[in-house]
Amino acid sequence: MSKPSSSINKKRAKRKIRELAFILPALGIFFFLTPFINTIITSDTSTDIRELFYYIFTAWALLILGAYGLSRKLTNEEDKE
Amino acid sequence: MLSFNLLVSICIIYVIFLFGVAAFAERQAEKNKLSFLTSPIVYTLSISVYCTAWTFYGAVGYAAQNGLEFLTIYLGPTLLFIGWWWLLRKLVHIGRKQRITSIADLISSRYGKSNLLGVLVTLLAVIASTPYIALQLQSLTLSFAVFTSNSVNSVSPAITALFTAAGLAVFTIVFGTRNLDANEQHHGVVTAIAVEAIVKLVALLTVGIFVVWGVADGPSDIMNKISEKLPQNASLFTPKWVTLIFLSATAIICLPRMFQVVVVENSAEKHLATASWAFPLYMLLMCLFVLPIAVAGLDILPEGSNPDLFVLTVPLAVGQEELAALAFLGGFSSATSMVIVAAIALSTMVSNHIVLPLWLYGAQSRNPESDDVRSVLLRSRRISIAAILGLGYLYYIFTGGTTALASIGLIAFVGVAQILPALIGGLFWNNATRSGAIVGLVSGFILWIYTLFLPSFDGGFILTKNILNNGLFGLSALRPQALFGLNIDDPLIHAVFWSLSFNTIAFITVSLLTTQRSLEQLQAVQFINVFEHTSNNRTSRQIATPEDLFILSQRILGRQETTKLFNQIAESQGKKSGLPDPTGAFIETLEKEFSGSVGAATAHAMIGQITGTDTVSVEELIAVADETAQIMEYSARLEKQSKELSSTANELRKANQKLTKLSQQKDDFLSQVSHELRTPMTSIRSFSEILKNEETIDSEKLKHFSSIINEESKRLTRLLDEILDLSFLESGRIKLNLVPTTLSDVLNKALSATQQIAEKKEAIIISEPKAQNIELITDPDRLSQVFINLITNSIKYNTNSKQAEIKINCTDHEHYLEISVSDNGPGIPETEQEIIFEKFSRLNTKPATGGVGLGLPISLEIMQNLGGELRCLPVLSGAEFRINLPKYPIVAEI
Predict the structure, then answer these.
(1) Does domain B4-418 have CATH number 3.30.110.10?
(2) Which of B3, B260, B235 is nearest to B106 (CA)?
(3) CB distance A74–B85 less than 8 Å?
(4) pLDDT for the residue numbered B85
(5) pLDDT above 80 for B674
(6) Contacts of residue B86 in chain A, CB cutoff 8 Å?
(7) Which residues of B touch A (CB under 8 A)?
(8) What does the alpha-carbon distance between residue B95 and residue B101 come to, in Å, rounded to a whole number?
(9) In whole angstroms, what is the distance from residue B111 CA to residue B438 CA?
(10) Contacts of residue B83 in chain A, CB cutoff 8 Å?
(11) Do B233 and A75 touch (CB under 8 A)?
C-alpha cells in the first residue's frame, strides 16, 4: 500500500520543483519591475543611488544563486526521467 | 601613447590568435572531439555575445549620463534566463526538433513554412541589425581614434571603419561559411567567441579593479563619488525603466545573433540550465565596475570628454597604456564577436529566405538537383556577409558617427522586438495565423521605421527635418515622434508604444478573422505541443524515387554526409544494401536535414518540388482519416466474419460427424430391417413352398405351417406399420385423438400391455399412487404407446443379473405433468443419450428382442406432437427418462 502513495509523493515533489521555476522570474519581476524598487530611494538624496546600487546587485546575486540551485534540481530531475 | 601601427599590430596578432582558436576548434569538431566545444561553459560564454561594444563602452557612457538606468539592458535578459524553464527551453527544444536555422526560419516554419514571413523577418532583422553593426564599427573607430588623436599618422574614422568592416567580413566569411553544417552550427566561430568573451570580461574587470583601487581609494571612496558625481534618480520605476527591461528581455530571443547562439548553436538542452545562472552572473560581473569607471571618468577627465570612451581614456589619463591596450582588446573583442555572429545569422537568413527561394523560382524549369545548391548557398552567404557589413558601414557614414552608442543599440532592439508578438503567439497560441503574423509584423515594422529608425538619421535620410517637426504632408498628427498627437518625451517609448501596440492588435485581430491553412495547423500543433509530439506524420504521395532524393541531398548536404545519412536510413529500414525506400518517415527526416542547411521553408519547397507534395490539404487529411476509419471498420468486420466462419466450420464439422454416424446407423438399420424382413419372409416362403409341393401333408402339419405363415405375416405387417407410423409422426400427418382421461387409465393400459413381458422377465413395475387420478386431455393410446416403449426398453435392455425394477413417478405442476420412468439397468452412456432418439439408431448392445430401434424415435415424435418433450436424464445408476406433458392440449395443429 505504501508504493502508490510514495510514487504520488515523488510526482508531487517533481511538480513542485518545476513550479519553483515560476518563483524566480516572479521574484525578479517583483524586485525590479514593480514600484517596490522606489521604496529603496529615500528622501535624503545623498544616499539614494548607493542604496539602489546595493539593492539591485544584492537582489541580482540572490536571483543568480536561486537559479543555480534550481538549475541543478531541474537537471537532476530530468536526468532521473 | 601607443602608436597606431602598434595598435594595428596588436589587433592583427589577436585576430591571428582567434583564427588559430577557430581553426583548432574546427579541426577538433571534424575529428568528432566535441566534448569541450559543446560544453555548457562554451555555450554560456558564446551567449555573452550579447555584451557588445555597447556594453563595453556604451554602458559606462550611459551610466555617466543616466545613472543606474544602464542596468535595465542586463536585468531583462537576467529575468528571461532565470525563467528559462518556461520559454527558452521550449524555444531551444523546438529549434532542435525542427532543425531551425534562424529566427526567420522559426517564424516561417511555425506559420506553415511560409516563405513570405521568412522574407519579412529577414528584411526586418537586416534593417534592425544595421544600426547595431554600425554601433560596433563606430566604437572600434572611436577606440582607435583615442590612441591616434594626437598622432600625425592618424587615419580618418571613415577609413578605419572601412578597414575594420572589411577585416571582419573576411574573418566571418572564412569561418562562418567554410562549409554547410547540417545543423548550422559553427564550432570554430563559437569557440573564438567564447575566448573573446573571456577577454572582454577580464579587460573590463581589470580596468574596474584598477579604477577602484588604483584611481580611487577603495570601494568606500568610489561609492561616495558615485553619490556626488552621478545623476540622482528621483524614481527608478519609470516607464522608461520598464520599457528598457522589456526590450532587453525581448532582444535575447529576437535578435538574430542571440537566436543564433542561444537556439541554433545549442548542442544540448541541458546547457540552458547552466546558462540560466552563469550568463546572468557574467552580466553582473560586466556591470559591477561600470559605475566606478563612469565616476572615475567624470572625476579625473576634463569636462566634455566622451563618456563612451572612459574605459580607455581613464587608464590612459593615469598613464596605464598596457591597461588601456587590454581595454582596447576587450572592446575590440566585444565589437568583433557581435559583428561576426550577427553577420553569420543574417547571411543565413538572407541566403535561405531570399536568395535560395529566388534561385528556386528561377530554376522552376529545371530540376533542383541539377544544380549545386551548396555552392549557391555558400556564394550567397559570402556575398550577404559582405553586404550586411557594407550596410552597417553606410549607416555609420550616414549618421556621421556622432550618436551615443546606447541609443543606436536601442533602435535595433525596438526593431527586432516587432518579431515578439508573432513569436510568442506562435509558441503558445494555437489560432495564431500566418496572415495575422504578416499583418502584425508589417504594421509594427512600418511604425518602427517611421517613428524611430528614420528619425535616427536626424533628417538626413528620407524623412527631412521639416517632416520630423511638422509631420508627413504637413499633418501634425503624423509627426514621427508625436504620432496622433501623443506627446511622449522619450522617442524610444513613443516608438515602442505605437509599433508594438499596432503590431500586437493587428496580429490578434487578423488571426481571429482568418483561418489557418492545413500546414499551419500541423505546424501549430508541432510547436505548441512540442514536448508531447514526436513525429510530423507527413502525408506524402511519395512519387519521388530514392535516386532523385539522393542526387538532391548530395547537392545540399554533400556527398559524404548524404551517403552516411542514406546508409543509416536504409539500415533502419532493414535494407542491407542500396538506397532506402522513399517512405513518408524518410522524406520527413530528409526535409529536416535540409532545413538545417537551407531553412524550413526552402527545404519544404525543394522536397515538395521533387515529391509533388507541396501542400497537405485538409481534404487529403480528411480522406486519409476516412480511409483509416474504413480500414478499421473493414478490419473489425473481417474479424467478426472470420469468427463466424470459424464457428460455422466448427458446427459443420460437428454436423458432419453426426451425419457420418447417422449414415452408419442407417446402414446398420437397413441391414437390420433387411434381416428382420428377411427372417419372416424366409419362413413364409419356405412353409408356403412345403404347402405347395407336399400334396400329402396331414391336417395337423398344415395347421401348424399355416399358423407360422400367419404369425410371420403379422410380424412383417407390424414392422412395416412401425416404419409407416414414424414416417407419419415426422411429417405431422398423424391424427391425434385428444380426449379427457386420467393418467391412471393411460398407465394401466401400458402396464397391461407390458404385463406379459414383465412377468416373463420377472420385472417389478412400481407406479406412484398419487399420480393416478390426475386429469388431462390427451391421446391416451399414443401416450400409453410411449409408456409401453419406455417400459419395454427398460425390461429388454436390462442385462444385469439382478431383477429389473422400473419406477414411474409423477409430479403435478399447474399446467403440466413431469413423469419420470427410471430403471436399475446398465444405463445409457452420456455420449449416446442424444443418439438413442435418432431414427434408425440402436445402441451397440445386441438387442435382446427383435426390435428395430424405432421405439424411442416414435415416442419422441409422439411427445412432440402432444406438445410435450421426452429426454434422457444423466443419472448415476440405471437410466431415467423424463416426460413433460401439458395437461391440456397446446398443440397448434394436430
Answers:
(1) no
(2) B260
(3) yes
(4) 85
(5) no
(6) 21-22, 25
(7) 67-68, 71, 75, 78-86, 223, 226-227, 230, 232-237, 242, 245, 270, 273-274, 276-277, 280-281, 284, 288, 291
(8) 8
(9) 10
(10) 21-22, 24-25, 28
(11) no
Residue numbers in B near A48 (CB within 8 A): 227, 232-233
Q: Per mean pLDDT, which of B82-91, B234-243, B637-646, B729-738 is the most reliable?
A: B82-91
Q: What is the pLDDT of residue B702?
A: 82
- Containing B109, the helix (H) or strand (E) segment is helix B103-110
CATH of domain B619-728: 1.10.287.130
- Residue B20 grid coordinates: 588559430
Nearest CA in chain B to A72: B273
- pLDDT score for B543: 54
Contact assignment for A32 to B75 by CB distance below 8 Å? yes
CATH for B734-886 (1.10.1740.10, 3.20.140.10, 3.30.70.560, 3.30.565.10): 3.30.565.10
* d(C-alpha B603, C-alpha B16), whole Å: 36
CA torsion sign for B675, B680, B684, B686 is positive
> What ipTM goes with this model?
0.90
B79: chain A residues, CB-CB within 8 Å: 25, 28-29, 32-33
Which residues make Cβ contacts (< 8 Å) with residue B28, sequence separation at least 6?
A: B34, B36, B37, B187
Intervals of CATH 1.10.287.130 along chain B: 619-728
**Which chain B residues contact residue A68 at CB under 8 A?**
277
* Residues of chain B positioned with their CB less than 8 A from the CB of A72: 273
Q: Which string of DSSP letters, residue by residue, matches B713-730?
A: HHHHHHHHHHHHHHHHHH
Reported confidence tier of residue A41, pLDDT bands at 50, 70, 90? low
Q: Do A68 and B71 touch (CB under 8 A)?
A: no
Q: Is residue B450 within 8 Å of B478, Cβ to Cβ?
A: no
The ranges of chain B annotated as CATH 3.30.565.10 are 734-886
Among the partner-chain residues B68, B85, B233, the one whose CB lies closest to the CB of A18 is B85
Residue pair B283/B77 in contact by the 8 Å Cβ criterion: yes
- Whether B232 and A21 lie within 8 Å, measured CB to CB: no
Alpha-carbon distance of A15 to A19, in angstroms, equals 6
Q: Is the pLDDT of residue B892 over 50?
A: no
Provide the pairing of β-strand B880-886 with B869-873.
antiparallel
* Partners of residue B816 on adjacent β-strands: B886
Contact criterion met (CB below 8 Å) for B187 and B9: no
